[in-house]
Amino acid sequence: MNYLSKCLEAEYSSQGILIQTVTPGQVNTSLAKQLYDPSMAVPANEFVQHALKAVGTESMTNAHPKHKLINNIFTILDQLLPERLFMNIKLRAMTRMAQQKKAEREKQD
Fold first, then answer.
1. How far is CA 90 from CA 20, 30, 79, in A?
2. pTM summary value
3. What is the pLDDT along the chain (109 residues), one digit of tens a residue?
């Protein structure tokens, strides 16, 4: 999506059109409530407020400050650690989180 946005921006920039890519982190919605870590996710209405403030200001945004911080941390780690190691760490963390969520849902049932 980011590549497509950059291509569109290059094509339409001479007409004063800014193409914006929004790359959010975790957003609490009724659909995704059980999937996300509450400490990482932001409420949907809060995310939308920040996203609307970013319209027309930059070509790529995470919109919410919490998502920007998390993205910056991952960007730094990605540059410091070998790619394979970094991907393995992220995969293990996501798997662990999914297993915890599954166990919580099973407890509730």
1. 27, 25, 14
2. 0.61
3. 888 988 998 999 899 888 989 988 888 887 766 666 667 788 889 999 999 998 988 888 898 999 999 888 888 887 887 878 878 888 888 888 888 888 888 888 7
